Amino acid sequence: MRIPDPHGMTMTVSLYTQKLPFSTATLQTLIPRIPIAHRFLLHSSSSTRTFAPRNLRRFCTRAESSSAGEKGVGESKGQKFDFDLFTIGAGSGGVRASRFAANFGASVTICELPFATISSELTGGVGGTCVLRGCVPKKLMVYSSKYSHAFEESHGFGWNYEADPVHDWEVLMANKNAELQRLTGIYKNILSNAGVQLIEGRGKIVGPHTVDVDGKIYTARHILISVGGRPFIPDIPGKEYVIDSDAALDLPLRPGKIAIVGGGYIAMEFAGIFNGLNSEVHVFIRQKKVLRGFDEEVRDFVAEQMSLRGIEFHTEESPQAIIKSADGLLSVKTNKGTIDGFSHVMFATGRRPNTKNMGLEKVGVKLADKGAIEVNDYSQTSVDSIWAIGDATDRVNLTPVALMEGGAFAKTVFDNQPTKADYRAIPAAVFSQPPISQVGLTEEQAVLEYGDIDVFTSNFRPLKETISGLPDRSFMKIIVSTTTDKVVGVHMCGEDAPEIMQGIAIAVKAGLSKSDFDTTIGIHPTAAEEFVTMRTPTRKHRKPLSESEV
Ligand SMILES: Cc1cc2nc3c(=O)[nH]c(=O)nc-3n(C[C@H](O)[C@H](O)[C@H](O)COP(=O)(O)OP(=O)(O)OC[C@H]3O[C@@H](n4cnc5c(N)ncnc54)[C@H](O)[C@@H]3O)c2cc1C
Asked: What does the cofactor section's free text say about binding (predicted)?
């Protein structure tokens, strides 16, 4: 995995901008069924507002300001400001937007909470969720946890150990934390190299152009809110015993037996991490299946593979209380009974935008349900001078999306290039074990959208597992619109799926057809070559004939 550099971040999930021809009607049917983190938000006249950003021409660059003899000060309708831009929150989106704005000549200040591995209303750290409590520490733990499976696989290849390898939790945590410190330092450098001033403290909005940081007042022509989100734990008896994803990434000891509540991508990833690190893992999901919104076959396939690795799924089972016994162990009381003996109970039950107690409603910034900031296509809020990006707006909660929104905002406001964030198709990954990755439509969405669909699937035992003797399999799916021959969706669950899918996403973005896939030469021997060798459809969906056609 590449790490952030001063020119941009490389993450494991990327945004791309293929124009898939969804109709508005289909979109509106699909969006509620797709989890926020993996929605394909497509532009349509009725589902998104398309008006131009209001009052854009007020920006004057730092150069213009100083030529007017006012260092770093802009003017609007006779008003003077300390800065052109004040950003609240130095996570993925805030850092990107501030850096780009400064490169366009704006005078920029950003505020961020003091560093801590666990977030709160008073703690955070430069780099934000992705770097400190999300993508990066999670992926480091995935790497660590994958070794146990590799050790198992290795026996068939002739490896024998006199004793089972022992994992040192303290070493993992110390190295992970050292890496996070390094990364937060890199982010600070990114800001200072771009000329962005960093202030440590909690930002609060007190006027359309005014921010209060721990009692000190700053004014800016534009304010950008990029405060991200935090884990949400439902209010049930015993919630004080529960940990969230922040804490799960920074435990002092390896859990002996852990209950993970939730069926989304964060729950699946942590189930794989703790299973790989030899904890006993139980996953409780309210629904019948994990990963709502993903391709149905992928949902079944990944749950089966994870079960084979020893994870126990409790489906349609919702925790109602967590009880601590005298020996310190926790019991999970559900609608179906009580399961005892957990050292840890982790809730991965969603996240909420960090918009509480920020003074937003007072200045007229409209909030949607659960505190998400309402914005137009240009990330402008209901107050002209206040903008919002990233998880705080609860559009598509992924790092590359926050980066894209930050870049679009900076271009719109500080480079006179009105730029809409583009959500037309977003490849995504789940770093479960085995991992999942996808780009484009699920089979269910494609049937609704196009009607006439050919589906090519392959469910196979990878070469490595023929000798390892383990029951691992890989699953791949290509979905093709038969009217155009265009590949409209690709899905994979199996080793290296996210790495493979990033390349496939380019092909799908370029609008390539199934025959382009078919004429591509495979790389042999790989699992990925399967994507260019699937010739016979597994299923054909055809629209029912209308009455006039019968
Ligand atoms: C466990 C986990 C795993 C994830 N894995 C992935 C993944 O693999 N791939 C992926 O693309 N995405 C992943 N994500 C999602 C990703 O981390 C977020 O989508 C991304 O970080 C959002 O960026 P942001 O800029 O909106 O907010 P954030 O990165 O959350 O940054 C917001 C910043 O604002 C600060 N802040 C909040 N309030 C204030 C205030 N009042 N004043 C000053 N500062 C404030 C916070 O401290 C924080 O630093 C994961 C998330 C989690 C929780």
From this structure: Binds 1 FAD per subunit.
